[in-house]
Amino acid sequence: MDRRGHPSLLSKLGLSVLTCNSALAVYQSHNDPASVAFVIASYGAMALLFLVLRKLETSSADREGRRKILAAVWALTTLLTAMFASKVAPLMPQFVAVQVWLMAAATAVGGFLAFFANL
Fold first, then answer.
1. How many other CB atoms sit within 10 Å of the CB of residue 104?
2. pTM, entire model
3. Tens digits of residue pLDDT in 42-60
4. Checking phi first, is residue 34 left (phi over 0); if not, alpha (psi -120 to 50) or beta?
5. Domain residues of the chain, as ranges?
6. Are 89 and 99 in contact (CB under 8 A)?
7. What angle do CA 114, 39, 53 make, to 5 degrees?
8. Which residue of 6, 33, 97, 109 is most buried, as measured by CB atoms within 10 A?
9. 8 Å CB contact between 101 and 89
10. Which Pfam families is this protein grouped with (predicted)?
11. What is the pLDDT of residue 99?
12. Measured between alpha carbons, how far is 15 from 21 in angstroms, rounded to an integer?
């Protein structure tokens, strides 16, 4: 975010790279509807995450409003973590697949505790 409240060049570049990468992934997997759906869902969740994080940066909301925004951030990051773990785990040996899911769960729980536990 620059001083005028506009997205920074780096944010625009990141979203542009994400868009191009997603478009190429859809193009290359156009014969596999499940892969296309995965790419579109991942892109949608990442784009929503960009928007929610921007709202968090610019928001002057009270404590309850910020908690709602943080809940959206946590939900989107947990969704993305589970989506990517569901793609990676089947490619691994069973022991490693269990570790992938344990790390995904630990990330979700850790994010929840970081955002919402008043320690």
1. 20
2. 0.83
3. 999 999 998 898 888 887 7
4. alpha
5. 1-58, 63-119
6. no
7. 35
8. 97
9. yes
10. DUF6490 (PF20100)
11. 97
12. 10
